[in-house]
Amino acid sequence: MATQTTEIAVGACVDAGGSALGMPQLCAGWMGNQVAWLVVSLIVIYLILSRIALPRIGAVLAERSGTITNDIAAAEELKQKAVEAEAAYEQALTDARVQAAAIIADAKAEIQADLDVELAKADAQISAKAAEGEKAIAAIRDGAVKSVTAVAKDTAKELVSALGGSADAKTITAAVSARMKG
Amino acid sequence: MATETDAHSEGGLVFHPLDQFIVKPLFGDGAVSWYTPTNITLWMAIAVLAIFLVFVVGSRGRAIIPTRMQSIGELIYGFIYKMVEDVTGKDGVKYFPYIMTLFVFILFANYLALLPMSYSATSMIAVTAVLGFGVFICVTILGFVLHGTKFLGLFWMSDAPAILRPIIAIIEVISYFVRPVSHSIRLAGNIMAGHAVIKVFAGFAALTLVSPVAILGIVAIYGLEVLVAGIQAYVFTILTCVYLKDALHPGH
Description:
The complex is a heterodimer. By secondary structure, chain A is mainly alpha-helical. Chain A contains two helices and no strands. Chain A has helices at residues 28-162, 169-181. In chain A, helix 1 (28-162) crosses helix 2. Chain B has one domain (3-248). At the A-B interface, helix 1 of A face helix 2, helix 3, helix 4 and helix 5 of B.
């Protein structure tokens, strides 16, 4: 850098070879330049930061924290809703169970009532049939006794006549009746 | 960077660790007057450009989920904003853009100065003195504007024993006026010393025998300088906040 081609101003601060004489920091001839450009740079940086960069970044940060807060609130709300939904579900389940139990009990009672009615009906029918049967049996028995009496009378009459006897109907009937009783 | 050619031509070890700080006109030769565009102009302009890229171009998307460049800008914004708020309180937040300007300028100038062949603007005492005394003058004027003569209560320890109060007041006044000096020399001295030491090691690298050690030394000092560049920007900014707090709340 300090070659002959890029000769720099030889003055109080630089020797003929381009090296510093003393500390360049303390060279009074250069200080005005440093200060001037520093002030320009600081003003430009201040304008860039205060006009564009800082409001923008501040807005982004505020928006982000707002978004995060909102999201957390929404998450809390959703969690609350989920808890409520679970409670409602549990409640519905319990209600359904209770209802089902009630329906089952109702059905049982109805069936029992139907069953009782049918049983009673069936019993009545059975007893009616039994009574009818008994009656029929009694009729048949009566009929049989009558027939036996008639057959016995006829047989007795025939027997008497076959044995050469003669008997009037009255006597035979009385005799048969007496025998039948015995 | 002049050391290499000089060492070669003179055939020996020649150190010019301070040549890197020479101010040169960008165009042609001649005297350096206050408006001449110089290497300082160039590197300050590069710093401004870098700041523009990071903070304006980087955040142009205004994305809720930031891009990498935008998150760098947001990180620096959040860091400085929190520092201003923590140190100076809620009423100091309106001075945040000024403090942010100081911080990003020093930070970017420090880090750009670590590029090889670059020029370190913050190593110039005139530059840091403008920053330091600028802060000092603004803060002092602000203190008097906000509190009038009550601002002088900063120097009067009302809870100290009555005999000690004048002595403490003298010490406080001296320390108050030393602030801008230490504020500016701290920054310039750190940056200048680091860069000069790197250059001294680079001069030793011309000797074959010690060049591995010299290069290791350059690497080590460079690593240290990366830390120093950030830390000095931070220190300058937080001290500015502390001085601002004194102006806003002068009571002890």
